[in-house]
Amino acid sequence: MTTYRDAVRTALQTLLREDSRVFLMGEDVGRYGGPYAVSKSLLKEFGEERVRDTPLCESTFVGAGIGAAVGGMRPIVEVMTVNFSLLALDQVVNNAAVMRHMSGGQFEVPIAVRMATGGGKQLAAQHSHSLENWYAHIPGIKVLAPATVQDAHDMLLAAVEDPDPVFVFEHQMLYGIEGPLDTEATPPSPWKAAVRRPGTDVSLIAYGGSVHKALTAAEELEKAGMSAEVIDLRSLRPLDRETILQSVSHTHRAVVIDEAWKTGSLASEISAILAEDAFYELDAPVARVCTLEVPIPYAKHLEEAAIPQVDRIVEAAKRTVGDG
Amino acid sequence: MTLDISRDQALDLLRDMIRIRRLEEKSAELYSKQKIRGFLHLYIGEEAVGVGAMHALREDDNIVATYREHGHALIRGIPACEIMAEMYGKANGCSGGRGGSMHLFSAKRRFYGGHAIVGGGLPIAVGLALADKMKGESRVTACFFGDGATDEGEFHESLNLAALWKLPVLFLCENNEYAMGTALYRHVSDRDIANNPPAYGIPADSVNGMDVVAVERAVHNEAELVRETSQPRFLELKTYRFRAHSMYDAELYRSKEEVEEHKKQDPIENFQARAISDGLVTQADIDAIEADAAKEIAEAIEFAEHGEWEPVEDITRHTYARDLS
Q1: What is the pLDDT along chain A (324 residues), one digit of tens a residue?
Q2: What phi, psi does A197 have (nearest 5°)?
Q3: Domain B7-314, CATH homologous superfamily name and number
Q4: Domain A2-179 fold
Q5: How far is CA A65 from the centre of its chain?
Q6: Which of A24, A101, A111, A144 to mutate to test the interface with B (most CBs of B within 10 A)?
Q7: Distance between CA atoms of B226 and B217, rounded to whole angstroms?
Q8: Could you tell me if B245 and B39 are in contact, meaning their C-beta atoms sit under 8 angstroms apart?
Q9: Domain-wise residue ranges, chain A
Q10: B126 contacts on A by Cβ (under 8 Å)
């Protein structure tokens, strides 16, 4: 068994060993070993040229990553958390996402950007938000949200291999989880959603940290006699409409779980997809379980109440069958 | 003081400044005729900067420019016809009609764009230089930006990062005294822009950006020092924009007298007069240059007029390496 954190590190090691164009940069990725200890020991193996501690200037080190990618390197840029990444949004939206198109296909930006996201550690309103949907909104970039140890490894490899800018969101509550890691197997396409648990009565559609809550909810629902199918979106851009529609076409009910705020969320997008393309398959209104419309509070009980929890998922699922 | 350059050099510098001026004048005309749309930022008055700099840099160097980049692009070698077609929005433009006036690109000429987010090109330049350093290349990344960019955080962050990591970037600040319509003294606390870089350990100098020979020499010296030391350097080019910021600008923020005063420093007229008095060029040379420029521009318009529109079915092309749908 491997931790999610170690799986990311293993992928980083493989990439740094196998491709001299690859380097890692970000705040405290070197001597400190990474704020979440992901890059621990990498400085020792690969040196300061390839494991670069940056100044605290998100906009410029992400921009420099974009420039280096255009210049033929394969940079992996770590931004400590999605909250800090807002300082770099200009570079993401106005450069990384548009350079290929705006230049008529002359330049490409093969950069991989990793960052932590999500709440659950009582870090309050400047370190706990989920803003993946902001990124998923932007054409020209791709967005991945690995929920499992295997995906944490495979998706980073895929992100670096990809010729387009790829943003990988690692939920901060997942770094310590354990799971099997097979580094030899051929990984499934990172752009397809996965059925993490098959079921027949309701589809629980989630990504990142919420996948695990959905799986726990499915177990509870089973005890109550309900068979829930759990879909892990995996890729947030592009969204795998096919898998979502296939699932709902046989369960006829859907609960979308998203740690972002409900308004303008990916949960809204998925609900709209279901309304557009699965309207006649639905036996109940789509339900959304999202973060309450409030900056995430510090106090434990308030934070727990703000973000989606298993009981809210169970309750929403029961509502779709008119029970609860 | 004589120019201390050869006849050929004088002709090259003059020719390129005139090519830019005539291209810009014609572009303004075509804008009025609605052939060119969107924003159009003319380089008239600032030609000595682009020409001097491009003559000083090597073919293998990287260029990152701003949205006022027609001149840089032209002298860098992007054909006038491709620039004009791009401004028309045609598929045979240098960015396939997807960029327009502000976003001219050429991979072949290491011209990394036309950037229209003020300050946004600086981190890209730092990254290009980082890639070169890591690959062991000896090229210089020349990064153009205006005085307005020095207000931005990315300017200060980029100087810091380039100095900290010892990256071969030549920062070229085209100080035309206005951040759009806000005068220098109203947007920076220290009007001496070259005071900024030394705070980051970057040597900085200023040069008269209305003097093409001075620009060429200064940029050449600075670029070669960057190449030799693999460390960033900074050059301020003091210039002035004779025309409005863009075609939408009513120029309420400056007086006609101020503009007229600066026009006495016209980089083309002054250089031309000096070159004639030094016996380097003749009126016949100038007439020939003007005729060639007129022909080049007429051909560019012809090329743009006859260019195809990109089919709407191809609208999502180049969003990703492979279409996602």
Answers
A1: 999 999 999 999 999 999 999 999 999 999 999 999 999 999 999 999 999 999 999 999 999 999 999 999 999 999 999 999 999 999 999 999 999 999 999 999 999 999 999 999 999 999 999 999 999 999 999 999 999 999 999 999 999 999 999 999 999 999 999 999 999 999 999 999 999 999 999 999 999 999 999 999 999 999 999 999 999 999 999 999 999 999 999 999 999 999 999 999 999 999 999 999 999 999 999 999 999 999 999 999 999 999 999 999 999 999 998 876
A2: -155, 120
A3: Thiamin diphosphate (ThDP)-binding fold, Pyr/PP domains (3.40.50.970)
A4: Rossmann fold (3.40.50)
A5: 20
A6: A101
A7: 14
A8: no
A9: 2-179, 194-320
A10: 60, 63-64, 67
Identity of the residue numbered B89: G
Which amino acid is located at A273 in the chain?
A: I
Q: Nearest by CB to B126, which of A64, A104, A108?
A: A64
Query: Best interface-test mutation with A: which of B319, B322, B323 has the largest number of A CBs within 10 A?
Result: B319
**So which residues of A are the catalytic ones?**
58, 127
CATH for the stretch A194-320: 3.40.50.920
- B108: nearest CA partner in chain A: A106
Contact assessment for residue B152 and residue A54, using Cβ atoms and an 8 Å cutoff: no
Distance in angstroms (rounded) separating the CA atoms of residues B134 and B282: 49
User: Is A60 close to B154, i.e. CB distance below 8 A?
Assistant: yes
